[in-house]
UniProtKB/TrEMBL annotation:
It comes from Rhizobium leguminosarum. It comes from the Bacteria. InterPro entries: HicA_mRNA_interferase (IPR012933). This is HicA protein. One of its GO terms (molecular function) is mRNA binding. Pfam families: HicA_toxin (PF07927). The lineage of its organism: Bacteria, Pseudomonadati, Pseudomonadota, Alphaproteobacteria, Hyphomicrobiales.
Amino acid sequence: MNSKQRKTLAAIFKDPVSGTIEWTAIENLLVAAGADLIEGNGSRVKFEKDGIIASFHRPHPAKEAKRYQVRDAREFLMQIGVTP
């Protein structure tokens, strides 16, 4: 995990939940944490690691993740054992 991904990880676990984290940074972090990226239809994307699956819709037209997506990413990271 590089320094940018560590900063993204810290931002995801920060309270109150941020609405300014770019979705691509979250995707890069989840892949760096060992999750497999599974493209779905349209903006749907899934991440899978050790049988644990998280499903998201990429935000559009904005590039920042919505707060609920950041919370869901935080939950997925905790389930796969990745914390700051």
